[in-house]
Task: structure prediction
Amino acid sequence: MNDDNTTDEGLPQEPEPKDSLPEAPEEKCPKCGSLLGPIVETKSGKQLRRCSTGSWNSETRQNEGCDFVKWLTVPPKELDEKCPKCGSPLVLMVTRFGKKAKKCSTNQWDPKEKKATGCDFIEWIGGKTEELDEDCPQCGEKLVMFTTANGKRLKKCSTNKWDPEQKMAVGCDFVEWQNN
Ligand SMILES: [Zn+2]
Ligand SMILES: [Zn+2]
Ligand SMILES: [Zn+2]
Result:
């Protein structure tokens, strides 16, 4: 009979919420003791929580109140697929434009060196963009060839970008659908 409280499994694993933004657990600001605000996503797809007493003033471009910011790391989702280049598992990543790609899990961003390290395999899911050596007839910037998820192709201006803050496309609106 062994009824003491030790287990062989160590610390209990917290269930990780999948797919949707995780519900923010109640957490206190280490600077001022107020509760942290909800999880917000930056333009570059990073997630952070600000102190609830602090807020970003977009006019003065300064933080008002408590300036504590907690950056969250968003772990990429590991896929049940192997990298065709090196055999490591692939992970699913989502860019700030909401595009998805499979990339090699050995590929990491090295913030010190400011470059990617590891295997460079990447496969875009549902649409990809290639740079073209053609100038936009509207503004003279370069065109890109965009292939949609269902295989349709269109040329569009490289200055045309999705602005997630304004939730609208910005830049030159030249688009030319390809009939192939
Ligand atoms: Zn605070
Ligand atoms: Zn690889
Ligand atoms: Zn253009």
Observations:
- The mean pLDDT is 81.
- Residues 7 and 103 are 37 Å apart (CA to CA).
- The first strand starts at residue 40 and ends at 41.
- Residues 83, 85-86, 88, 104, 106, 119, 121 surround zinc ion (ligand 2) (CB under 6 Å).
